[in-house]
Design brief:
Blueprint (H helix, E strand, L loop, with lengths): L1 E9 L4 H13 L4 E6 L2 E4 L10 E10 L3 H14 L14 E7 L4 E2 L4 E2 L8 H10 L23 E4 L6
Antiparallel strand pairs: 1-4, 1-5, 2-4, 3-4, 3-8, 6-7
The structure holds 7,8-dihydro-7,7-dimethyl-6-hydroxypterin.
Length: 164
């Protein structure tokens, strides 16, 4: 089993409900266990400011799915929830990012692991530190030692959704 982390974000169509639906779907993936989810956080958008604030969380999974199969499953779930690309860095009902996959590094057209911007974003780092403060990036940096460039006025807005 490989330990991986998924970033969840939503700012349309009842974001908390969208995140809860996505977590249920993660828990139901084949060959995968949902281990935990962070609290829910509210944040200002990174990108165009004329869009609603986001709700963010990070989930920890254990899986034997290969990275690209896991990515397929995440993208399938985004489509299931009706995600439509409106504009670059624009609003979305759900975003599921594969942040970390064990200690693997992958750079390809389709998939970059670690997620190339994760170390800059408070809406990823804070929830990640909440559930996994023992974590190191594949390059050896401790997750707790990273300083985000983008704060987004991050605030804890609620406990982890209850799944199952
Ligand atoms: N901004 C915030 N605050 N949270 C997100 O999850 C998020 N996701 C994105 C972009 C559009 C970059 N901005 C975001 O993909």
């Amino acid at each position: 089993m490989i330990r991986c982390f998924i970033g969840l974000g939503a700012n349309l169509d009842e974001p908390i409900a969208q995140i809860t639906i996505a977590l249920r779907a993660l828990a139901a993936l084949p060959d995968t266990r949902l281990l935990r989810c962070s609290s829910l956080y509210g944040s200002k958008p990174l990108g165009p400011q004329d869009q609603p604030d986001y709700v963010n969380a990070v989930a920890e999974l254990e899986t034997t799915l290969e990275p690209l199969k896991l990515l397929d499953a995440l993208q399938h779930q985004e489509r299931e929830q009706g995600r439509i690309k409106r504009r670059h860095w624009g609003e979305r009902c759900i975003d599921l990012d594969l942040l970390l996959y064990g200690d693997q590094t992958m750079r390809s057209e389709r998939l970059n692991i670690p997620h190339h911007e994760m170390h800059k974003r408070s809406f990823v780092l804070l929830p990640l530190c909440e559930i996994a403060d023992d974590l190191y990036l594949p390059d050896g940096r401790a997750i707790t030692g990273l300083t985000p460039e983008f704060s987004g006025d991050l605030q804890r807005i609620g406990p982890p959704p209850v799944i199952g």
